[in-house]
UniProtKB/TrEMBL annotation:
Keywords: Dioxygenase, Iron, Metal-binding, Oxidoreductase
Protein name: DNA repair protein
Binding site for substrate: 67, 72-74, 134, 160
Record-linked SUPFAM superfamilies: Clavaminate synthase-like (SSF51197)
Length: 219
């Protein structure tokens, strides 16, 4: 069935306690706007970097917003020494909307989302199992996917191996992990090149935006 003619309302699926997948969260227009913003951000002062980590050079190219992430900490300055501009407000709003969609409500007080990592996956790019643990705050991580579909592997807080659940994330999907799942291992073992919806302006590749609360204070 053509889902452009019969839009399926997004309904949340709990993958693990506190980890919620909302398929089809953003419509193609919103996805296109975010794709354009991602392109602008990746051309910005922080650029796009394939960081060198303990596991080798990442196949994913990354831009950070709000704080500059490099393995394994957040920095208030870019590599050239200039201060990192604050998180674009559109991403703070997106994150709170994501919490409402995933959990049915925004906690009070709302988390102070101040950092986002924008990842680009070209053909063959993957991300190994890891925890998002450079934050000093247990606010949920809000993840939005654009472009090609992928396998998102969502595991447990104790090991980078089983038990885990493989979820297919497509462009426009939301995934939020907080509460008991906030420190769970997760990764992207593969993407499906050529599956992006051309209406979103991304013909190949996958962007993923994760919005986080660093729990850090600026200078
Ligand atoms: O690309 C994804 O869906 C996950 C990205 C991720 O885990 C991260 O940026 O820490
Ligand atoms: Fe992560």
């Amino acid at each position: 069935m053509d889902d452009a003619l019969f839009p399926v309302p997004a309904s949340p699926v709990e993958v693990a306690p506190g980890a919620v997948h909302v398929p089809g969260w953003l419509d193609p227009d919103e996805q296109r706007e975010l794709v354009e913003l991602c392109r602008t951000w990746t051309r910005g002062p922080g650029g796009m970097t394939r960081h060198r980590t303990r596991g080798g050079t990442m196949s994913v190219a990354m831009t950070s917003l709000g704080w500059y992430w490099r393995p394994y900490r957040y920095c208030a300055a870019l590599p050239d020494g200039s201060p990192v501009p604050p998180l674009p407000p559109v991403l703070g709003r997106l994150a709170l909307r994501g919490l409402a969609a995933a959990y049915g409500a925004v906690p009070d007080p709302a988390p102070d989302y101040d950092v986002a990592l924008v990842n680009f996956y070209g053909p063959g790019a993957t991300m190994g199992m890891h925890q998002d643990r450079d934050e000093r705050c247990d606010a949920p991580v809000v993840s939005v996917s654009l472009g090609d579909a992928c396998v998102f592997r969502f595991g447990n807080t104790a090991t980078r191996t089983r038990p885990y659940t493989d979820v297919e994330l497509r462009g426009g999907d939301l995934f939020v992990f907080g509460g008991p799942s906030r420190w769970a291992y997760h990764g992207v073992p593969r993407t499906f090149p050529g599956t992006a919806d051309p209406r979103t302006g991304l013909r190949s590749g996958r962007f993923n935006i994760t919005v986080r609360a660093s729990g850090l204070r600026r200078g």
